Amino acid sequence: MGLFKKWFQDVPLSSQNITKVPLHLAIIMDGNGRWAGKRGLPRSAGHRAGMERVRETVEICLEVGVKYLTLYAFSTENWRRPVEEVNFLMDLFEKSMKVEVAKLHQHKVRVRFIGLRHGLSPTLIKLMDESQELTEANDALTLNIAINYGGRSEIVVATQELLRAVVNHEITPEGITESAFSNRLFTSGQPDPDLLIRPGGEHRISNMLIWQSAYTELYFSDLFWPDFGREQILKALHYYSKRERRFGRVEGAQHDA
């Protein structure tokens, strides 16, 4: 973070002077358990604190004009955690949806869930379906919540769909293009993420949006997610606004999209 600190030391932290806003922002919400552990609290306390940051992040995205926000809530690997913690998280998802989705709907936020459904409880799946149906027509912000999500499993699912299409003579092998593949991902119809933020001190994307993140700008922070508040989000957005995204072009060339 030393480089980022130097980069932003003279930048006023205001949403008003962000010169370039990412169309799609993705966040790996890492560090809830370690945040709680450093305070002598149970890991569940960290997950509750992390939920507060979700609300604040949605508010900032609506404020600055981000149109797509993807939050990594529960990965396919998280099933390996202690049963008590997994059960708590699933219960927290259910309780949060019952309270938060109505508020999101009031602010014209469309809620989407990306990931695999198997392993999730029927109650949770029902709430997910109801939330998507309720908010489907909203257009202020699309909020993708990644539950039981893994980038590798997403690629496998897309590949299986393409193979079925070939077997059923719906497309030819030559019809398997990057566009055809992207259209079968969980984020079909959405732009790839422009900026991916990962708090928590790790410098990897941990199986998140592997295909979609080929040209995504990455921003890492040593702060745990519950400490990653408004000031930190604005720092990341200012960082992004200073980046020149060349997409393989020479310096100074403009991207068409």
Explained architecture:
The protein has 257 residues and is an alpha/beta fold. It has a single domain, classed as Decaprenyl diphosphate synthase-like (Undecaprenyl pyrophosphate synthetase, 3-Layer(aba) Sandwich), CATH 3.40.1180.10. It is 42% helix and 14% strand. The protein is built from 8 helices and 6 strands. A 6-stranded parallel β-sheet has the order 3-4-2-1-5-6, with helices on both faces. Strand 3, helix 5 and strand 4 form a beta-alpha-beta unit. Helix 4 packs parallel to helix 5. The radius of gyration is 19 Å and the shape is globular.
Short description:
This protein is α/β, with parallel strands linked by helices and 257 residues long. It has 8 helices and 6 strands. It has helices spanning 2-8, 32-37, 43-64, 83-106, 122-135, 151-167, 178-182, 230-241; strands at 24-28, 68-75, 109-114, 141-149, 195-198, 217-220.
Low-confidence stretches: 1-12
Percentage of residues in helical conformation: 40-55%
| Main sheet summary | 6 strands, parallel
CATH topology term? Undecaprenyl pyrophosphate synthetase
* The named CATH superfamily: Decaprenyl diphosphate synthase-like
Assembly of the depicted chains: single chain
Gap from first CA to last CA:
30 Å
Please identify, by name, the CATH architecture: 3-Layer(aba) Sandwich
Class of secondary structure makeup: alpha/beta
Rg, Cα atoms, Å: 19 Å
What percent strand?
5-15%
